[in-house]
Amino acid sequence: MASTSSFAPPKLADFILTERLGSGTYATVYKAYRKGNSREVVAVKVVAKKTLNKASTENLLTEIEILKTVRHPHIVQLKDFQWDADNIYLILEWCSGGDLSRFIRSRRILPESVARRFLQQIACALQFLHERNISHLDLKPQNILLSGCVLKLADFGFAQYMSPWDEKSVLRGSPLYMAPEMVCRRQYDSRADLWSVGVILYGEDALQIGFSVMRLCFLYQLPPGAKVSKDCRDLLLRLLERNPDARITFAEFFTHPFVDMEHMPSADSMEKAKELVLQAVQKDQEGERSSALSLYCSALEHFVPAIHYETDRQRKEALRQKVKQYVSRAEELKALLASDNKRSFEEARSARDVLRGKEREGLLTLIYFNVCFFMPVYCVFLLVRLLFYYFLVISFFFGAFIHLKTKTLVFFLSQKLPRTQLRAQGVDLTSKILQ
Prior knowledge:
Blueprint: E1 15-23, E2 27-34, E3 41-48, H1 54-69, E4 78-83, E5 87-93, H2 100-107, H3 112-131, E6 134-135, E7 144-147, E8 150-153, E9 160-161, H4 180-183, H5 192-202, H6 206-214, H7 230-239, H8 250-254, H9 269-285, H10 289-309, H11 313-416, H12 419-424, H13 426-434
Antiparallel strand pairs: 1-2, 2-3, 3-5, 4-5, 6-9, 7-8
Helix pairs in contact: 5-7, 9-10, 10-11
Subcellular location: Cytoplasm
Protein name: Serine/threonine-protein kinase ULK3
Domain Protein kinase: 15-259
């Protein structure tokens, strides 16, 4: 079916192999064209049989089995596979943008918004694989291809079927992107892919991370002056956790606010946006401005990803113009609501002032009533109380005077009469004194 030479690409019955795109330990990848009128462009992965051992043969068979069964917009499609006496050929989907590693090198550092969009696509592919108990185990920028602005996971040579409770100990993947538990040759599971995602997101210094992990001293920190959002920092910290039991789980990763898969560009973005904008228009017509504004904003959160997902230039431009109209209407509603709120605030303040005036009038009325009604009563009470105190004082002084007079007379008479006579006449004397 095909023949090979040391220098020329192998010959394949239905394809013309041209330039070599890259090579590894067991395989070489070529760009190729399908023979005939279609001239379809594909990538052909050529695996030399003589280089295969038992482990690599099992890996190749697993790769073919996985790629035959999966169909996903963010996973490279296996179109066909063939073999001859010397080689095994995997005919794969062509990705014209090269790999993510080259894309990053050409731009040095990606803006957070671009990194987020790429991460959403990686997360979407991983979610699809995770639901089918498939672990890639060799995630790195070189194995992530671009077709336009769409990322696609490639090279499933180390992929394995792994349930959440399955553990492996065979060393797999690229050392710079391996999870610490793999580098240390301990048991590992599907969470190793999450560490690799963290290293890809960190991006700039995978070599330093790899060497630090080997020295068991890696501590995640961002370069000085790096402008990274709070959500991005949190995700990096949780992905690059040495202890797999403390690392972020797949469920937490897929729902993390930085990943935000709800608003990632996809085929569903347009449908979600249309549904929300129809509800917004209906609420707008009914005069429910607040609800309409909220729905317009929610629709725009899906329209923007829909624009990114659209590949046709004319449709993309038409969509942009439509979105501008919705943005304009949302701004109008926002201004109207602000005006209504200001008017409501002024009315509330006016009502508050009226209530305060009423309260002030009520207080003055109460004071006047107290003065007019209770003051005379209080004055009479004070007068009676003063008269009572006056009577007590007069009584006190009168009693003291009588007591003093009695003592004086008794003393005087005791000096003039004998004691016996004084006793005998005591009753009469007392009577006389009292008279």
